[in-house]
Amino acid sequence: MAFNGKVALITGGGSGMGRTAAQLLAKQGVSVAVIDVNEEGMAETAAVSDNIHTFPVDVTDTDAVHNAVEQLQSTLGPIDRVANAAAIMPFGNLMEQDPKVQLKLMQINYGGLVNIATATLPSMVQRGSGDFISFSSMSGVIPGLLMGGYCATKAAVQMYTEILYHENLNSGVRFVCACPPPVSTPLWKQAEATVMPKLIEGGDVLTPEQVIADIERCLESGEFLSLPGKGTRLGYHMRRLMPGQIWKHTHKVEGF
User: Fold this and answer.
1) What is the residue range of 25's domain?
2) pLDDT of the residue at 191
3) Is residue 88 included in any domain, yes or no?
4) Among residues 82, 160, 234, 247, which is most buried (max CB within 10 A)?
5) Where are the alpha helices (DSSP H) in the chain?
6) Active site includes 110?
7) Is residue 209 assigned to a domain?
8) Would the pTM count as exceeding 0.85?
9) Arithmetic mean of pLDDT over the chain
């Protein structure tokens, strides 16, 4: 693991990717603060280790996030790693999906990142060290029918993190933006419960551990984008070189 710090902060730590990341770090002796609105889930995450500390916070609440970060740093010490894994993933046709759901997607998936970044990065940059990890998605790279709201949020996450990275290029803070294909988590089950595009239905699904392993590899090698999984890197380049062909294939598969 490419981490030698003492304190980590992980949002969305009540389940899925956030839970796995928190528990892996805790096993290494790291003090891990997890943030989530899912208090029951956080309790399950923390049950495996005394190194995991829970903070019930809504990542869309700017003041609450900033206050929680101040509190946990005063308790645990300076934050050495931040991983923003909080997200929701309802799919739907943009003309049919409730606009309130689409806005909630943006508030949590993107707005939560903004709140966490502004609360944690300044002190990391000031100290000249730390890791900052964002979870985008291949859905933020390759747009898909029936998943526009989610795709838009993950594209925003990727762009925001890329600019953060370049604005703090020589700060000593390491940045990684993870863009995995589907991952076997409760988040993926949330998508399956709404509508599943044919393009991704029945495709390969990674484990959280596979995604985290590639993030660690990128941190060690200095790569900004983590593109885990078979064919992910190819898809990333195809989107930029042949966007028309991507859309042609998408329409053919989905049938509209």
Assistant:
1) 7-254
2) 85
3) yes
4) 82
5) 16-27, 39-46, 62-76, 99-105, 111-127, 148-167, 186-192, 208-221, 232-241, 243-254
6) no
7) yes
8) yes
9) 95
